[in-house]
Amino acid sequence: MLVRLKLYxxxxxxxxxxxxxxxxxxxxxxxxxxxxxEYDPTISxxxxxxxxxxxxxxxxxxQKPILACKTAIKDLxxxxxxxxxxxxxPVKDL
Length: 94
What we know:
- This protein is mainly beta.
- It has a single domain (2-83), classed as Beta-grasp domain (Ubiquitin-like (UB roll)), CATH 3.10.20.
- 12% of the residues lie in helices and 31% in strands.
- The chain is globular and about 30 Å long.
């Protein structure tokens, strides 16, 4: 499935779009790492345990607060807007 991810870029105050292939079982965090590795190494986001315990990967996806490591990309739809949480001041992007 192709997904259009729109990522908030704090350094430019813009939304940058990526159309990426996804696979069954991938989480939003998996897709963010794929984008960082294959498309844009300048993207910054937080992650730690990758198990939904620490909460470090919290973001807003389509205006809803989620943990990127626990949210399946297929559950977010074909177009996803990813932004920092409202109560977090990002150092760079997410």
